[in-house]
Design a protein that fits this description.
Blueprint: H1 7-22, E1 24-25, E2 35-41, H2 45-48, H3 52-61, E3 67-73, E4 95-99, H4 103-115, E5 131-135, H5 144-149, E6 152-153, H6 160-167, H7 175-183, E7 201-202, E8 212-215, E9 217-218, H8 229-232, E10 237-238, H9 241-251, E11 257-261, H10 271-280, E12 284-287, H11 297-305, E13 310-316, H12 320-325, H13 332-344, E14 349-356, H14 363-379, E15 383-390, H15 407-422, E16 427-431, H16 434-444, H17 451-460, H18 464-478
Parallel strand pairs: 2-3, 2-4, 4-5, 5-6, 8-11, 11-12, 13-14, 14-15, 15-16
Antiparallel strand pairs: 1-7, 9-10
Helix pairs in contact: 13-14, 16-18
Length: about 475
């Protein structure tokens, strides 16, 4: 291992070491193969360590005696990139496997390649460059920019047949041989499987601090028009309650803090049995997503008993018209009932998620957002957090060909919403950055005929944000509401 000498490198080294020392592994993962593979999550450690795909890939890659897989994360200040597992530097690894789940992380991915002077166009790389692999949620939709940059893009859930092909790679293979082997893996559509994941390590610095994460469901049978999960991630499949209890029983002596992960936890067909397990093992639970129309008193009581002071629901639209256009499948009675259940369970704080700025949205629809916040206050909640995100039309959703409302109009809408909501005592607003939302829109919708120009912009590093904002205007000019 090459130890750093410069102060900045030492600071980077110490940060990675801090996270490394915080980790408690739940299973024995051997890192012993000859083919050095870097698993890179191009976002911060708290985000990376909370991603079950990061856990599952690390676990799966290291089951081969040929592969030695180590983990990396991203900070904008990083230059050396030290492994979380051995503190080796990234440039010592022959395969760089990126797990990319968010559009903004594409820019971080590019930043890492540029930091090591790796050409963004794959055909410009020489035999001594690492093999660049990309997978993750963003790969479910065909992504022109990722396809142009990566030597190989894996689309979909991790499949045993691909893992076995990956295991067959050897350190004696040349760069071209590795790419050739991987490229024989054919995709007609994203791979979908039923293998649900769980954490392989805990860390107090994770977004879910020292919490065991168990995936109890994947995919979704609902078709909310703004969401890609129901359209791209396959039909809902669930962990059997017997399997779930076996996992819980195995780790309950390590931690009582368990997070149950699914697109919609309240769609879990064994929800009552899950709540029985929470009581039986005295679990301190958290849930990734709760639907308004299937919320139950017993579920909220389990959260409250576990020490949660706040719960979250997502009306998404302020009016029934918008909720119907979103195909959300909920109505005002569902929202009112959820608010009542929260008060009955003893909650004094609630978080409400809304989407605003759809091209078909009207002022009266936005007034409904304010009315729901007022309704929550009248029910008796002392604190109401209203989280507002602009609608971002993306591939893999029903709104793929819809234009995104422009920055000027979105900022105007946000200003009015903030003003009207913040006048209500006890209501706090949280807005996603409009600029970042539009950048997401540009990256998600980048077309094949614009890729070469975008790579030139990314390579030059000349005010990338400005170009992406300009590209959003170009996309909108091609689309009709």
């Amino acid at each position: 291992m090459r130890r750093p000498r410069e102060q900045n490198a030492w600071d980077e080294y110490r940060l990675v070491l801090k996270y490394k020392d915080s980790e408690h592994f739940l299973e024995n993962i051997q890192i012993s193969g000859d083919l050095a593979t870097a698993l890179i999550y191009p976002n911060s450690y708290p985000v990376a360590s909370s991603s079950l795909s990061f856990h599952e890939l690390f676990r799966s890659f290291n089951k081969s005696s040929n592969i030695s897989c180590e983990r990396f994360f991203y900070e904008r200040s990083f230059k050396r990139f030290f492994s979380l597992d051995s503190l080796k530097q990234l440039d010592e690894f022959r395969i760089w496997a990126f797990s990319i789940h968010y559009e903004i992380d594409v820019l971080n991915f590019v930043d890492i390649l540029k930091n090591f002077k790796i050409p963004l166009r794959k055909e410009e790389r020489d035999p001594y460059h690492p093999v660049i692999i990309v997978g993750g949620a963003l790969s479910f939709a065909k992504h022109a920019l990722l396809n142009r940059i990566a030597d190989f893009v894996y689309r979909g859930d991790l499949e045993k047949s691909f893992i076995e092909k990956f295991w067959s790679l050897k350190s004696s293979f040349s760069r071209e041989e590795i790419i050739g082997k991987l490229s024989r893996f054919e995709f007609s559509s994203p791979m979908i499987n039923n293998n649900l994941s769980k954490s392989c390590f805990l860390s107090k610095y994770s977004s879910f601090s020292d919490r065991l994460l168990i995936e109890i469901g994947r995919g979704c049978n609902r078709k909310c028009r703004f969401c890609s999960v129901g359209y791209s991630f396959g039909k809902a499949r669930f962990t059997l309650v017997e399997q779930l209890e076996a996992i819980i029983a195995s780790f309950i002596n390590v931690t009582r803090k368990i997070g149950f992960i699914a697109s919609t936890v309240t769609d879990y067909p064994y929800l009552e049995q899950l709540l029985d397990l929470i009581e039986k093992y005295d679990i301190i639970p958290s849930f990734s997503s709760l639907r308004v129309d299937s919320l139950t008193e017993s579920l909220l009581m389990a959260l409250k008993k576990g020490g949660q002071n706040q719960f979250t629901i997502a009306p998404e639209g302020g009016s029934q018209r918008i909720r119907n256009l979103f195909s959300k499948g909920i109505n005002s009675e569902h929202i009112d009932n959820a608010l009542n259940l929260g008060i009955k369970a003893g909650f004094e704080a609630i978080k409400l998620y809304f989407i605003y700025g759809a091209p078909f949205e009207e002022e009266v629809d936005r007034k409904g957002i304010v009315q729901i916040a007022e309704q929550a206050k009248k029910k008796g909640y002392k604190k109401v957090i209203v989280s507002l995100n602009p609608l971002i039309p993306k591939p893999g959703t029903a709104y793929y060909n819809m234009p995104m409302t422009g920055m000027k109009e979105l900022k105007k809408i946000a200003m009015t919403l903030r003003k009207n909501l913040n006048t209500i005592p006890g209501v706090k607003t949280v807005f996603e950055s409009v600029k970042e939302g539009i950048i997401q829109y540009s990256i998600a919708n980048l077309e094949q005929d614009s890729v070469e120009n975008m790579i030139d912009i990314l390579e030059n590093g000349d005010d990338i944000d400005r170009h992406l904002l300009k590209y959003a205007e170009y996309i909108n000019s091609l689309r009709k509401e």
